[in-house]
Design a protein that fits this description.
CATH superfamily of the largest domain: Response regulator
Radius of gyration: 18 Å
Order of helices and strands: EHEHEHEHEHEEEEHEHHEE
Strand order of the largest sheet: 2-1-3-4-5
Shape: elongated
CATH architecture of the largest domain: 3-Layer(aba) Sandwich
Strand content: 15-25%
Distance between the termini: 49 Å
CATH class of the largest domain: Alpha Beta
Structural class: alpha/beta
Helix content: 40-55%
Number of domains: 2
């Protein structure tokens, strides 16, 4: 049974999420601020964290940044702010999904299920990829460690950015539809906005610098990693 950590300074939000988590047979624990959340992740074993942004003591972004220094636990961020910058920043810190308040508790639980399913698939895939290396020019994927290097330098990608680039390169010179990418990277039961894909791709292109032009946008279709570029 999966165990969730529900982090929000508003008691009624914590109680609402707890109610639906219990209905879905999840175990759960709660925290009311970022500092408490960090302490609990340090002390306990959680399968997923639901993290609010605007909280006293320490905000959600800062808490995620600290948690990512010692844990890769999946994180879904809750926020009353829907600006693209906030979503980009959250994904850059390594969150797995972003839900805007007010939200549907049922949809939140669907997203929890989807993220947990992806996390399990990712762990299984990492086991299959153990000790495998994939290279394209100066790009080098250490598949067992889930790390990308360019010109020998480690590139800090979020899990989704890493998976997107790897999938595109494994399907180089093939047009990959938006639907395929959402299905393969976010899972069959992804319930989010497909603009999330564009947000990730925008951030990914910035991070891989000289290879950004290799990722070609195909209008109304999707994307292609073009090996003929450069």
């Amino acid at each position: 049974m999966a165990k969730l950590l529900i982090v929000d300074d508003e008691m009624h939000i914590r109680e609402l999420v707890k109610k639906y988590a219990a209905f879905e047979n999840y175990e759960f624990d709660t925290a009311s601020n970022g500092i408490e959340a960090i302490q609990k992740v340090h002390q306990g074993e959680y399968d997923l964290v639901i993290m609010d942004i605007m909280m006293p003591e320490l905000d959600g972004f800062s808490a995620v940044k600290e948690i990512r220094k010692f844990s890769s636990v999946p994180i879904i961020m809750l926020s009353a702010r829907s600006e693209e910058y906030d979503k980009l920043y959250g994904f850059d810190l390594g969150i797995d999904d972003y839900v805007t308040k007010p939200f549907s508790p049922k949809e939140l639980m669907m997203r929890v299920h989807a993220v947990l399913s992806r996390s399990k698939h990712k762990m299984d895939k990492q086991g299959a990829d153990k000790n495998e290396i994939l290279e394209y020019k100066t790009l080098k994927f250490d598949l067992s460690a889930h790390i990308l290097y360019i010109d020998g330098n480690r590139i800090e990608l979020t899990p989704k950015e890493y998976e997107l680039l790897l999938y595109l390169i494994r399907n180089a010179n093939i047009a990959v539809t938006r639907e395929q990418l959402l299905e393969k990277i976010w899972g069959y039961d992804y319930y989010g906005d497909d603009r999330t894909l564009d947000t990730h791709m925008k951030s990914l292109r910035k991070k891989i610098a000289g290879y950004a032009d290799n990722i070609v946008t195909i209008r109304r279709v999707g994307y292609r990693f073009d090996t003929e570029t450069n």
